[in-house]
Structure formats: C-alpha cells, structure tokens
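Task: sequence in, structure out. Protein: Hemerythrin family protein.
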Amino acid sequence: MLKWKDEYLIGVPEIDKQHEELFNIAGKAYAVLKDDFSVDKYDKIVAILEELKEYAVYHFRSEEEYMASIHYKKFFSQKLEHDEFIKKVNNVDLRKVDEDQDKYLLDVLNFIVEWTSDHILKKDKGITS
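Result:
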C-alpha cells in the first residue's frame, strides 16, 4: 500500500499537501478493498472515484498555475499527463465496477498508487530542481 513519505516532497508546501491528500484517497480505496464485512461496495467505490476526480482536477489546476507562474519548461508535458489521468478516471465503466467490485477496486488502487508515485518522483520533482 502506498504510504506518504518525505521522499515525495517537492518543496512547494501547497503542492506537497495536495499530493499527500491523493495518498489519503488511495488509503480510503484500500480500506474499502480490505473491508470483508461489506458485500456490496459499489456505492463506496463510486464515491471514491468521484472524490478522486474532483480532487485531481483541483490539484492539477493548482499545480499547473504554479508551473505557469514559474515558467516551468515542461509545463505542457505535465498538463498532458494530468489530462490523461482525468480522462482515465472519467472513462470508468461503472458496469464493470459492479460486475467484480474487488477486482475493479484493486485495479483503481493500483492505478492511483503507480501513477501518483511515478508522477511525483519522476515529473513533479523536476518542478523545483
């Protein structure tokens, strides 16, 4: 499971705080996945997806405004990755979610964990270096 570590800090407090919140959303998804007492997790999964989408839009807008303010040279490649993330979350097939909730939740969780950690460590760190 993805846990917040200082290695994810990029040195911009507002963005660091927002990145940590993305990890918190992943933690909520993990808690739902591990909840053996819930037979039907569909509503919880949909709520997590909505929260992820809304927060990602907010975070990406904030991060892009910061990058623009410092004239970051890789702004457009960053924006493209952000847009692809939002597109993937927007294109979730809720029928597939309902068919195999735990599998789909694990897929969503893996996507969040891999994308977020990779993006922060390989792309966002470049904003301040």
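The two ends are 28 Å apart (CA to CA).
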